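Let us work through a complete example step by step.
Step 1: write down the sequence.
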Amino acid sequence: MIENNGIKNIFTFVAYWVVVPLILVGLFFLGRSIMLNVPMGENRTSARSGFWAGLVLFVIYFVYEIALFKTPEFVKIETLQLNIWGVISGLFLGFAMLFGIKYLIPTRIVGFLILFLTFSSASALYSYVFIQTFNEWLLSSTLGVAFGALLHIMIWPKSIHDIFVKLES
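Step 2: predict the structure and record it as tokens.
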């Protein structure tokens, strides 16, 4: 039988090293999916440029932060603590992000949105796993973004179809 502390360690490991990184990877692929669903023309070019600009900006960030690189210690189980302001800001960001995506996809501003999603998710994942200086805030805001986005989908379920269904040009 697993003792109570062992179960706590398992849940902490899953939350810290599986759930949060999967959410960050999901945000990256949300940006990529939006890019692929933008209709052909100038908006599609803007979306593609935003995706690649986000990756270039991530490489700049990576090179800048390389001195802080740490090998992740997956077996070191830390006590999870949430930053309430990180959760609240993430909740509003996730909710507003899905609300705004619907209106930004048909415009050239979609490139900036995709740049933001690509850079922020890649840099947050890198920082979370390899730098680990502000993981409490990243953990909190990432869970808040996921909750805010899911709350938006719960209230307006059709909104997600507008994002992932190929738009007519």
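Step 3: interpret the result. The two ends are 59 Å apart (CA to CA).
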